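Open question from group meeting: does this chain pack into something compact, or does most of it stay loose? Before anyone orders reagents, we agreed to write out a predicted structure and look at it together. Recording both the input and the output here so the notebook holds the full record.
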Amino acid sequence: MTGVSKDAPVIFLNMFEAYKNHILLHFIILLFGFTGILGKLIDLDAVSMVFHRVLIASVSLFIFMLILKRPLKVQSRKRFVGICLTGLVVGAHWITFFQAVQLSTASFGVLCLSTTTLHVSWLEPLVMKRKFSKLEFGLSLVVVLGIFLVTEEFSGNQLKALFFGLTSALLAATFSVFNAKYAQTEKPSTITLYEMIMATVAIAILLAATGNFNTNLWAISVEDIGWLLFLGIVCTSFAFLAIVELVKHLGAFTVSLSINLEPVYAIVLGILILNENQKLGMQFYLGSVIIVLVIFANAILKSYLKKKKNSSNMVLDKDLDA
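Structure tokens returned:
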């Protein structure tokens, strides 16, 4: 027994070393799911909340990049302008997302984002000049069915939440596709830094134009300051840099497949922290299951088709060599 007890810490450390990247990945996904919860916990309107988020994210990301010696220069002026314009879309995405969360539930807001794939399926062929995927479009339509089931009543705040949630998904698809294009020549961390800075400037101008850039903007409780720092530094800057590093170690497929768990984590967190289960009926969970299953089916089918294509190419190469 003594020998077992002595070896136990070593075995545990070896297991942790082997799976530390997977553990960190799921911690990051948990942070992504927690973002919607913060929309409920922070006592600020959506625009003010996003302003503080992008401001904190800009400063913290700039410091992280200096410490890690990441490049700050963008290769061309045209691309820099494009990245800055994409930053406007990022800011608008977060504003509409938090608006949806505040009008409904954190779970509902995150599930609305699942329709992002629908918009990516037609946006990516236009921007990236690739072939239109009927599979992606078809699966995305099933996600819309899931959203229809999740939204049990189309009236009042729920209808507004649906509008903001789906708009947020469209904006998320837009900046995701353009970021994928820019990432072909620029470092992802550099792209994000300038998008955060541009979003900060744009929202500051919006607040000033509406007469809301005043002392009230900075009149924040100590608790909310803590949550905002957590949102800007941990859930945005740290999470982004960590995901970039994890892709190097685990691969893009493993990371993208695992991130599909975000709606599940968001629903569980909403139940545990906000008691959202009291507001959610069986129809919500049915819609949620459909959405999550489609998300995983999409990743699995893509992996299968990719392997099949690679196998076909290998056979073709062998035939040509012969």
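Observations to bring back to the group:
Residues 31-321 form one domain.
The chain has a mean pLDDT of 83.
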